[in-house]
Fold each of these.
Amino acid sequence: MQPTLKLSAIVSGPNHRQYFDPQAMKELEAGIRAAGGVTQPILVRPHPEREGVFEIMAGERRWRAARTVHGDDYDMPVVIRDASDAEARSLGIIENHFRDDTSDVEQAEGAASLLAYNKGDKHETALQLGWNVDTLERRLLLLNCAPTVRSALNERRIKLGHAELLAGLPASRQDKVLGGVIEHKVPVEVLKKQLGQFAKRLADAVFDTAQCIACPHNSAQQASLFDESIGDGFCQHPSHYDELTMAALEARAVPLREQYPVVRFVRLEDGFAPLTVGPDGPMGVGATQYTACKGCENFGCSLSAMAGSYGEVHESLCFDAACHAKKVSAHRRTVREAARTSTEGSAPADAGPKPSPRKAATPASGATAAHHVPARVVTYRIEQWRKWAANALMAQPQRNQRVLAALVLAGDMRAVVRDRYAEVAAKVTGAATSTKAASGPLPLRKAIEQADSFDDQQAATMVRAVAAAAACGIDNDGLETILNYLEVDEARSFVLDGGYLDLLTVSELESLADEVGLRQAMGGAYAKARAGKRSDFIKALLAVPAFAYAGAVPKAMRYPRRGFGRTDRTGSRTGAAPAPAASQVACDAAEAVSA
């Protein structure tokens, strides 16, 4: 039996269609009346934020027409499907294309939204839409059209080719040219010829145009669609103009890359819409989450490479639309819950017994705020984790034995890094040189003779070093497992120093300073330090009197906790045990393994 939902329980989804042709809608409504209802179900999904509400993925025209004909109590035939935000957007674009076609601008807007959810991956977006990348870029180009041009295309007063050509002009010029195109019914090919030679206006250049004065490609002529009084020169050598433009923009990007993890150049064909992230406002994520966002690999700025806005910078942007939507949604829920709790708590005293209030949702705290750790920090922390695991394995003989046995059982002995192990042998035995992996493995007889030369203490250290050497080669999941088993305490291993801070951009340094308490410890000196150069900012952060840099561990350096149910020798469940003190030779060996 076909499932249905009340129209009142269905809301519009992320539909890119903006123009609903009145005549086509009247015809659809007439068809619904004649058929006694909607015969083709619409596609919906459970609303991501509102319980009991469903969001349209495809079929908004039928939904609108049914409301007009039958009202909100009508039982609408539906197909309910769980879908991600990206899937919902792609399904809507495809569905609309094969029904009453949306305009190319509306398709472009839908494609841009999907592209944002795919983190700017054009190949993935084109694949989801059944397009090729060239088609996608041509659609995205239309987002640079002025509102008047978009409307003209939506209403079929101009052709797609007209809009694509007008998209290359600054918005301030598009209206004038559009008027001429419509009034004189200028064909696409004629417009292309007239605009092509004037595409690069020197007055808009971001580079020094002094070099262009005597250039034979500099033209002050005007096309018939432009005012004769403008008098601007245009470059008729597009590739050279673009080369000079990108060189100038690259120079502007250098200081920005010290500020942000992401600096993105925005071109005409990118269909880019800035997604601002901040603590407050309609798209706010809350103060604590915003602090975390500034340390995220998807936080940054855009730098325009488009005519009319060359070099324009948009700051404090998020480049992961799906993550941003989740953070905004979480903050809205927090605000709503807090408001509801406040209302329930302010009821009059004589209002009688009231239901027990819900627990107020507190704003995201440092424990719940999340972000994507930049790849360079991930690489650094894996190196540090390997050192911590190796040192802990050398310092905990009993657990070392069990890890060694587990490595054999798991078939992970291949993780032992032989050349690192050979360095340990040299440290332990005092040999002047170590056996390098490049020279190949020793014959078994010679290796036994060498091992037999160790005294008992050296032999015990070398056995422990096997597992420690494995920490240098095991995969990341195995490394996290070992860290959890050994109950390594990051605060005893990590020191906040220049080696770590040098990895971070200014926005990431800001996030770190808030997280570990450096900003509070600096007081009024923080703002002055933040306003300076990145190198001076780092120096100031590392020179705060009485701040405990040892043990100030940022979340990005902590490993994920996964509990182990272990037993002591009597069979009782045990928790963390203090690590036994290691001998100096064991510490030297661990350092050799993890160097």
Amino acid sequence: MFRAVLVANRGEIALRILRACRELGMGTVAVYSDADRDAPWLRLADQSFLLGPAAPAQSYLDGARILEVARRSGAEAIHPGYGFLSENADFAGAVVDQGLTWIGPPPSAITAMGDKLSARAAAMAAGVPVVPGTMEPTDDPEVVRAFADEHGYPVAIKAAYGGGGRGLRVVEREADLRAALEGAQREAVAAFGRGEVYVERYLTRPRHIEIQVLADTYGTCLSLGERDCSAQRRHQKLIEEAPAPGFDPQVRQQMGDAAVRLSRSVGYVGAGTCEFLFEDGRFHFLEMNTRLQVEHPVTELVTGLDLVHWQLRIAAGEELPFTQDDIVLRGHAIEARVNAEHVAAGFVPSPGTVTAWREPGGPGVRVDSGVWAGWEIPRSYDSLLAKLVVYGGDRETARRRLRRAIDEFVVEGVPTTLDFVRFAVDHPDFARGDVSTVSVEREWDLSPIPPSPQAAQAASEAPKAPSRTFTVEVGGKRLEVALFEPEDPRTLRRPTRDRGRATGGGTGASGDLVAPMQGTIVKTAVEPGATVAAGEVVLVLEAMKMENQIPAHRAGTVTALHVGPGDVVNAGDLLATIEA
């Protein structure tokens, strides 16, 4: 084992790895940015070192600085978690060149599989079916247009490096092609430091099924079963479960064999995931994530294996003591991602201060988090706060347990995706296991999901937290009452509930288009004097590593743009003036 492991990440995954290292008797080194100075997970590390400013390029993506910290701290190994540098072959190579252990696959495997285009080529060579698409990176709209002309719309423009739905745009029509290409490239650069993209045919109603693989350095490579990750928004996962509901055991076997065959062909070592799209009884290889997945806990619960422990053990030279025949899936596990997002407003990222945080418990409930009450969520990073994971003897037991745990989970100060999960677990499609990658955004009516209390407060200019709280009894029934008092009682007014598109600002009677969230302006889509229709994109705002199109809230003429690319804005700031 290692004397000390440097965890080159942040948030819940940093805490998850720090705990695993402690359980195995290893020392720990944490790193942080200016925005994470007071982060909860730092308290669990033996040593903590500042990387730099909040911007990922100057902190968590600064490989040279991380290697410097590793030397200073005496770390023998680096665990990258997921995101950031976890799939950067150059950084993995630099770690090895420094005489340190990279807790992940060899750089050659990352090169082969971390780049989605070379992964597609490797899959084809291994006889694994792939989605039709281009085999070379491009920044040329004409290449995308030619592919769409051949295969038809919709098509998907995807970042060649990285994953998690970052740098992915679906193009429904030719008129949107250039903007989608530019947006995918910007988001890919912000998330992964590289902007190469490629094009694929977009399947209309597939399920997103992935296979977890685990391989040691002695030639053993195993499939640990599948996960269904079809419940998504913006091509990013919201709910994951294992095993996939109603999945044909024969298809599971075939998909697992394909994942192992592909992993062996590139000399894969450690934990990795092969992702597939499954439609009409056929599966197509999508990509391989050469790292630990966010949703790894559901596989841990149904297999009884600790994947982070095995990442560390394999990197330290241990051999897997079990075979494929020993891998048996028992029971059912479901994971719900708890993101700081305003669901009723269109999953708008919503950083802020967590004023209360109480996690659920009880049999079969696990919470992986990196949040405590009083912590201010930075706007520079992903919106993921925690993962609520439940286990049951069968899927229905797990589903009901998730519903119960959601009701116990208390988060105040910021809106979260718990509002969506509460709605989703009761949805008839989810209850019967009939969810595709387009269900959430195209098939489900999300209007019953109410605005969060935090959003209602912002809309009404009420205080961000209750002035006072009371516990009262009415007719013998216990009730919790929160009192919200305006700073000036003379300004008291009734809270409004805006059920329109949340990414727009302002209301019909006002010409002011205001920011729906804190973020950075990355693009202006119109010029002053332009005539716009209601819903037409005016600006693009990046918040918590997600680009958000800000549409016109009314039809009219853009008489003024008050911000430009690079400007940082807060929720409620004036962006543009549109006169009818």
Amino acid sequence: MSIPSENRQTIPEWMRARLDDQQRFLVLCIMCGLICGLVGVGFHLVIHALFEAVWDLARSRSLGEFIAIMLMAPTLGGLLVGIAVTTRAPQCAGSGIPQTKAAYFNQGGNISARAGLWRFLLGTLYVGLGNSLGREGPTVHVSAAVGSTIGRWGFRDPARKQAMVPVGVAGGIAAAFNAPIAAIMFVFEELLDDFSTKALGGIAIAVVIAATVSRMILGEAPVVSTHLDLEYETSLWMLVALPIGIIAGVFGPLFTGAILKLRQVLRRRKVFPLWLRPASGGFAAGCLGLAGWFLTGLLGQENRDVFSVGYESLELAFEAQLTLGVLALLFILKGLAVIINYATGGSGGLFSPTLFLGGMLGGMAGLGITTLHQIMPLPGYPGDSHITGACVLLGMGAFFGSIIRNPLTSLIMIFEMTGTYSLILPLMVGNLISWAIAGRLSPVSIYHALLIQDGVSLRKLPSYRGARDWSKLPVSTIMTHDVETLSLTASIEDIRRDLKTRLERHHGYPVVDQNNRLVGIVTRSEIHQAPARSALADLIKDQKLFVIAPNCPIRDAANQLIARDFQQVPVVSPTNPDRMVGILTLNDISRQQNASDQIL
């Protein structure tokens, strides 16, 4: 009788005979860190070399040929991605971080080596040919594929296989940013969501190896050189962190909301076929990049960084070499290019664009502080260029915290990029303010929102929770975030027509008023039994609404649903009972129980 392929022993005989499980895990973490370090460095060098080749070719030609090349290159990159995504590699659109999370939570951490190879190729072509996305997200996906492949090769235990994914993710981030501590923090904030010492050992080993590989090849300097060697004294000007944090906290949700909205519109209206959509985004990015080049040239500071990654502009901003007009232009044009590129399905990440936009925002604030100092001298003022450079850093950290929603990662990353501890206080203030405001304006983070938009729920719990009883976990781990609601002002007749057109038929629907406040819940049978001319408000009149908080244990919620003979319950904000953040159904609980039984 043949052995199923998934159960065959793939571990080398010498490794199995000489090393126990823990020793083998450490050896494989070293191997994973080495490969992920090479992946991160290779991705960096290949994208840089490809874009430089395209740019040098275009600049060596006439103006008409230059325009044609810089329009065709990102369009070609988008076309190649669109064809590959629709025919060969559907998981390679976007940044790769949502795909990594979905594979880790829902598929036991299984990411094929083939997916990693496609991601490397498509990310290189898309960003290297001038499209305005970053390389760090794809690096995470490729590195996760490396960790997953090594885990499947080295272990039979599903938990061990799954545990290699965060090891690969950490190694990839460490190599991409040359920021090893921030890489560890990112894994815990974004993927694990739980500071487990069991996971820390292997991740730390991979991070050290990957960062060492990166520094041996690329040098000791961080990816973005700040040129700041001044120790800042705590003084009044640092209060600029407050407005930077507030502005970043507002602009972050607007930026991510625009990506999600455009993505949704393109899917519904189907203006372009799926395979052509990334090419349309590439053409738009080419137009915006050329507009940026021409307009900044008119301002006397010719700049190409709307194209591709754009770290050169950050370095110029650190040295206060960009004027207010150029900073504002780059912020607007780069922001539009990123929104279009990501929403149309390009293969690239949001890390680099987030840092770029935050840097431009901070640079504008720095110039504002400089002007204020000329009117009213500020105590402890360290000089125009140093003020601008510091504000660029504050903007980078605040915007990262607002969009990616990992405030500790952004704080440590900026600290590692500068090596300057004296800015730690305004960095903390700006990051936390932007993170808090963004969370208030948009409760669901960008990566989770993308998964929800794709119909993916992260329902299975990762192995780092160990033997912890899943029923004691909060309902926020399994609840549905994307809730279909009914308007309180709608008539029963209109609601019945609307329900007939909806793809999903739910047992019950929450009811919200004109201010989007939760006021009740009605079942589908109640709607169909009610008189056609009656009002929805009549159905929920005198209703004693049953709600729960996101931190309510699953077991307690299940017991309350059964006791009341309900099939669903709205989940509301702990600080605002009128604001619904999700809904929990008995199906959610049953699905999680079945998934956990399969893992065990």
